[in-house]
């Protein structure tokens, strides 16, 4: 059985307990991170730890443990569950308190939960060789998407809409421009230029995005950070998404229109390769 971490203890998943008064449960008053594991090692842990700190700060939430201890917990959980390739999910909530919209004045002990998912072959080329189909849906999330909160109901609805339409995922559109995918950042490629929406409160500041854009610049690729429309994407040479669980994943169809002849493009393939190479080399 899977071993999970709850507030200082490593316990079998069926013995893990969180209060019914936990504000994560009552108010979605919590944040999370997802870190991938390749070859038993964590990919870009420092980036995820830094974003976690920022998310907590934006919500005036206490840091449950320091970065060093957080790394130790991640590693211990990977070891205890024998994870070769997979994901570590970290959830922090403000903790339990009698139900009240206001943050508890006396403060609370944050709830810290981590669990793993084993995903053998997470970085296998097979999925990337096929590419994803996406549909566009209106972005109906709240306005602070830069904070990685656990309010994932709309992304969940978006994945269901995609499934119902026979697609793999959805890209969200606001004021005529693509914000991001339901659980990833969105990109198009036109000629030799990579286009992706600029950072702001409208999108999550992807850790994979930061690494991929840095690697693209180092490889002398041109990058434009600006909004783009679904129509522009449908006329692009390539499209792709990035996230900690998909790395760099080509998109080959948008609202039924094939992109780049319906086959993954060279820019996405190259970025995936250099991202995975560097990430494995720097993994902890
Ligand atoms: N999702 N945008 C959204 C809305 C996301 O949920 C994610 C990550 C990203 C990519 O961020 P990163 O590169 O740091 O993973 C962008 C994670 C993987 C999830 O919820 O499963």
Describe this structure in words.
- By secondary structure, this protein is of the alpha+beta class.
- The protein folds into two domains: 3-118, Aminotransferase class 4, branched-chain amino acid transferase, N-terminal domain (D-amino Acid Aminotransferase, Chain A, domain 1, 2-Layer Sandwich), CATH 3.30.470; 127-282, Alpha-Beta Barrel (D-amino Acid Aminotransferase, Chain A, domain 2), CATH 3.20.10.10.
- Helices cover 30% and strands 29% of the residues.
- It contains eight helices and 15 strands.
- Strands 7, 8, 9, 10, 11, 12, 13, 14 and 15 form a nine-stranded mixed beta sheet that branches. Strands 2-1-6-5-3-4 form a six-stranded antiparallel beta sheet.
- Strand 13 and strand 14 form a beta hairpin.
- Helix 6 (207-218) packs across helix 8.
- It is globular and about 55 Å long.
- It starts with a strand and ends with a helix.
- Residues 34, 180, 183-185, 204, 206-209, 242-245 line the site of N-(5'-phosphopyridoxyl)-D-alanine.
